[in-house]
Amino acid sequence: MDETGPAHDAVEALVALLEEERAALLNGDFERLIGMLDDKAALIDQIDAADELTEEDLVAVRALLERNQALLDSALAGIRGVAGRIGALHRMRRSLDTYDESGRRTTIEGTIDHVIEKRA
């Protein structure tokens, strides 16, 4: 394989981008991730169209893609968990369900005061 051709350059650029993506995932920098999407798609298209890549190149890129996908899946699971917890806290503000010793549920309605405090 020509180690200086456009396909090799695209692989190197994608590897560098995937390392940046990993750092952004680990830092929770989702805005940075969004900014990388177009570049990542363009590089993948270049690699997909290339004929002179070796299996070794593709295996290395695939491993990085899978690693980052696992990190992204974990980040999304964390976000879903936080969203669920926030939803539960909002529900608790409206009402709270309790259970007595015989297992009967009792709902205690919450009140939300919408008071505007005026200060001098």
**Percentage of residues in helical conformation:** 55-70%
* Secondary-structure element pattern, one letter each: HHHEE
Number of domain modules: 1
Give the overall shape, derived from the CA principal axes: elongated
Structure classification:
mainly alpha
| Sheet having the most strands | 2 strands, antiparallel
Helical region count? 3
Query: What's the gyration radius in Å?
Result: 25 Å
Note poorly predicted spans. none
Strand content: 5-15%
Could you give the distance between the termini?
77 Å
Order of strands across the main sheet: 1-2
How many beta-strand runs?
A: 2
Average pLDDT level: 86
Notes on the protein architecture:
- By secondary structure, the chain is mainly alpha-helical.
- The protein has one domain (6-109).
- Helices cover 68% and strands 8% of the residues.
- It is built from 3 helices and 2 strands; from the N terminus they run H-H-H-E-E.
- It has helices at residues 6-27, 30-49, 55-94; strands at residues 95-99, 105-109.
- The chain has a two-stranded antiparallel ribbon with strand order 1-2.
- The mean pLDDT is 86.
What features would you highlight for this structure?
mainly alpha, 120 residues, 3 helices
List the SSEs and their pairings.
Elements: H1 6-27, H2 30-49, H3 55-94, E1 95-99, E2 105-109
Antiparallel strand pairs: 1-2
Concise description?
This protein has 120 residues and is mainly alpha-helical. It is built from three helices and two strands; from the N terminus they run αααββ.
